Amino acid sequence: MEQKRIQPLARDAMAYVLAGGRGSRLKELTDRRAKPAVYFGGKARIIDFALSNALNSGIRRIGVATQYKAHSLIRHLQRGWNFFRPERNESFDILPASQRVSETQWYEGTADAVYQNIDIIEDYGVEYMVILAGDHIYKMDYELMLQQHVDSGAQVTIGCLEVPRMEATGFGVMHVDEKDQIIAFVEKPADPPGIPGNPDMALASMGIYVFHTKFLMDLLRRDAADPTSSRDFGKDIIPYIVEHGKAVAHRFTASCVRSDFEREAYWRDVGTVDAYWQANIDLTDITPELDIYDGSWPIWTFAEIKPPAKFVHDDENRRGSAISSLVSGDCIISGSTLHRSLLFTGVRANSYSRLEGAVVLPNVMIGRHANLRNVVIDRGVVIPEGLVVGEDPVLDAKRFRRSEGGICLITQPMIDKLEL
C-alpha cells in the first residue's frame, strides 16, 4: 500500500527569484538600484513580496539571482533575509552573475540565470523548483500551485492572471483547453486568445513557473546547447514544453491570499512611475485593495531599529498632521500637513509645508513652505524651501520627470539644477 504524503510539497521545493532586471520604465528610480530593490509600502522593497510568499508558503530554500546594479538589493537581502539556518535544512543564496559557466558570460536571459547555477541547485536535492519574478506586488500561497502541479502530472505549471482579453496584449498569453492545459503560448499577441467559456477574458502569464527539478535541469542543459536560443523562459523554455510536453495553467484566484478586507485578487506590476505611485497611494485608502496589515500572511523585510514617528506644533497653519496617510518610523512631521501620502523611514517635513498624494522615499528633507502634490520623491532628496510642484504642469515638466498621468518624479540631481 502506497504511503500517503504528510509533509507539504513546499518543504521539498526551492524558490528561485529572478531579480536581475533594471525596470527602465521606472526611469530615475532605477538609476541606482534594480527594480526589485525599489522601495514599496512604507518600509518594504518590491522583492519582499515574492520572498514573503515563498516563506509563508513553507518554502525554506530560496535563491535570488541578481545582476543589474545589485548592491542596494544585495545589501537589503543580507540585512533582512539572513535568518535561514542550514541545520534546519534552510538556505538563502544570493546569486550574482559570477561567470561560473563562462569567463565572459553574464546572465543572458531568465533561463540562463538558472542554468548558470545548476550545480548549486542540484546540491540541495530538492524535488521541485518554483521560478519567480522578483518585481510584482501580490500575496500567493505557492503550496497550492505545487499541489496542482503534482496532481495534474504537468511538466510545467504556469501562474496566470485572468485579464480582459484586449488588455493582455502586453503579456505572454496562454491559449488553454477546457482542462486548462496550455495548447499555445503567445508573447504579446495583437489578438489574444480568450478563455474557453469566458471569451472576453484571457490568461496572462505572471512569470511564475513550477517544475520537477530534474526535468528543468535537463531542459536547461538542452537549451544551453542550442545556439539559436535566447535563453529565456517565455521565449524558449515554455513554448518548447507546450509543443513537446504537458504545460498547465494555474489561475491566480486559486491561490491568492486574501484577508477578510480584500475583495479581489490583488496583483500589480508597478513597472511605471504612474503604476508605482498609484499602488503606494492606494494603501492610504480606508480599506485598501491590498491588506498589508494581515498578520496571518506578513510581508517580511529588513526591520530597522528606529524611533516612532513624531508630530509636533499645533498653531494655525503650522500643525503637524496626517490625514489618510501612512507615516513610517523616524519621521518628524514638524508643523507640516499630509493628505493621502505615504512616507518612508526617516522623512523630515518642516513647518508650513503641505504634501498631497506624495510618495516620499527614505531620508527626504522637506523644506518650509514647500507645496508638493502628486509626486514621487527619491531617497535622500532635500526639497528646498518654498518649492511648489503639482500646480503648473508645463513648469513641472521642465524641471522634473513628469509622467503621462501627471505624477512628478523628483531626484536630487533635478533639484541641484533648479535656479531658485
UniProtKB/TrEMBL annotation:
One of its GO terms (biological process) is glycogen biosynthetic process. Pathway: Glycan biosynthesis; glycogen biosynthesis. The record marks Q67, W106 as: Could play a key role in the communication between the regulatory and the substrate sites. Keywords: ATP-binding, Carbohydrate metabolism, Glycogen biosynthesis, Glycogen metabolism, Nucleotide-binding, Nucleotidyltransferase, Transferase. Involved in the biosynthesis of ADP-glucose, a building block required for the elongation reactions to produce glycogen. Catalyzes the reaction between ATP and alpha-D-glucose 1-phosphate (G1P) to produce pyrophosphate and ADP-Glc. Belongs to the bacterial/plant glucose-1-phosphate adenylyltransferase family. This is Glucose-1-phosphate adenylyltransferase. It comes from Shinella granuli. The lineage of its organism: Bacteria, Pseudomonadati, Pseudomonadota, Alphaproteobacteria, Hyphomicrobiales.
